[in-house]
Automatic annotation (TrEMBL):
The keyword Nuclease does not apply. It comes from the Bacteria. SUPFAM superfamilies: Tetrahydrobiopterin biosynthesis enzymes-like (SSF55620). One of its GO terms (molecular function) is dihydroneopterin aldolase activity. Catalyzes the formation of 4-(hydroxymethyl)-2-furancarboxaldehyde phosphate (4-HFC-P) from two molecules of glyceraldehyde-3-P (GA-3-P). This is (5-formylfuran-3-yl)methyl phosphate synthase. Residues 365-397 are annotated as: Disordered. GO terms for biological process: folic acid-containing compound metabolic process.
Amino acid sequence: MTKMLASVTGPQEAQIALSEGVDIIDLKDPKAGALGAATILAITETVMLIAGRRPVSAVCGDLPMEPRTIRAKVEEIAATGVDYVKIGFFPSQAAADCARALKPLAGKAKLIAVLFADLDPDLSLLPVFAESGFGGVMLDTAKKGQGRLLDHMPLVDIDAFVRRAREAGLEVGLAGSLEAPDVPRLLTFGPDFLGFRGALCDASVRTDAISAEAVAQIRDLIPEERKAGSSASVDYRLLAARGYSPDAIDPTLGTDRIFVRDFVLPVEIGAYSFEHGHTQTVRFDVSADVLRVTDHPEDMRHVFSYDIIMDGIRAIVARGHVQLSETLAEQIATMVLEHPRVARVVVKVEKLELGPGGVGVEIERKRAKQQRATGPRGASGETQTVFAGGGRKGRHS
């Protein structure tokens, strides 16, 4: 499960974060830069306040890429008793040497490397971090106020970052001026934690104090694990409130239809030899029947974001060549139905360059538990339409 990391300035804000169920309490001084370091006193007092009830992390500051300087600061912060120390790695030929210099300290606290999406992050450092005893790596932004993480790095590249970090054996965190609508989009990649500061403050001003109400809103978007000793690893009562478990949703509320229409992308697709080695224009239309959780939707906690559909299509297309339109449609339908609130999805994939009109396939898929056995086709709850620009249509199972 993805955890929520909240950056706080000291004990007072840490108490708010603790009360609202934040998973990781992170110390920083937001007035001193992207990774501005809190004072040693603030860190020590916060560690004493939390008293092991949550993991505590602290950042080292925006330090020059000089091994001795970074090692001395990491050693100082690790001595406060924090669980994690976050170290910023800015573009530098000395970055790998800085990482290796910290290997002797890896046993004193879990080391988390921070790379910056807006500073051309060097992903070749990932195996170096792993070899140097780092526990994880985080993707953030350095220039606060100049865009969110998703403004500086497309979703397909974030997906690749998460996968490469995992392959190196590192925990993965994502941050960078994240806002509430970003949360469901990033959760699809399964990061170990998402980090927040500005979204937790009044008016989203990261240098202001955090607000309990703002913290609660973000907390409610991220499913929580049950505490040790409970009967399941996931608290499904909480997930139901956040739209993750249809079993606990009142069916009398009905469904809403979320759609993406005329979504056009270049796609490597086709079974013919002439279709290999280049892209062709494909249009996607997707509609999803989504179980409602309230009669009065007010914020991201109450809705299923259409961004998830578009992000998913982009990620699937980025994997490489697809032989059949049917294969692509099935992959998209499966992706959408992975979200438990989706009861039914219709996917249309239309190739636009093979004639005077569009050609392709349209499929309908339903969640298995809601299907009815009505014969050979109805038993699977599936229908499929093959279409051509001239209007000829045929159905098959």
